């Protein structure tokens, strides 16, 4: 948090605005990166479905089967 504060002071008479903006960007940058990553994944999946709908359907079904299997193993292992 020190770097955004120091950089905000370089804004001259708008130093308070610079500090507020710098700290808010520092706090929200990881959220913005996560949203961009989700958007990129969505774009890739949308293009894959448009080009190879059958392959993506089979891959999605296999992913669901694997996820259910992992969940079942985790649930039954925790109970033992």
Give a description of the structure.
With 80 residues, the chain is mainly α. The chain has 3 helices and no strands. Helix 1 (2-9) crosses helix 2 and helix 2 (15-51) packs across helix 3 (53-79). The N and C termini lie far apart (46 Å).
Concise overview:
With 80 residues, this protein is an all-alpha fold. It is built from 3 helices and no strands. 1% of the residues are buried.
**Oligomeric state of shown chains:** single chain
Please estimate the helix content.
over 70%
Average pLDDT works out at 90
**Pairing-aware structural class of the strands and helices?**
mainly alpha
Largest sheet: none
How many helices in DSSP terms? Answer: 3
Secondary structure tally: strands: 0
Shape: elongated
Order of helices and strands: HHH
Distance linking N and C termini: 46 Å
- Portion in strands: under 5%
| Rounded radius of gyration (Å) | 23 Å
Instruction: Show unreliable segments.
Output: none
List the helices and strands and how they pair.
Blueprint: H1 2-9, H2 15-51, H3 53-79
Helix pairs in contact: 1-2, 2-3
């Amino acid at each position: 948090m020190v770097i955004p504060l120091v950089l905000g002071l370089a804004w001259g008479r708008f130093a308070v605005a610079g500090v507020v903006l710098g700290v808010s960007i520092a706090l929200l940058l990881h959220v913005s990166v996560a949203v961009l990553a989700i958007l990129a994944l969505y774009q890739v999946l949308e293009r894959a479905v448009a080009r190879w709908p059958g392959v993506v359907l089979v891959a999605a079904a296999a992913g669901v089967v694997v996820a259910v299997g992992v969940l079942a193993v985790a649930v039954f292992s925790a109970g033992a």
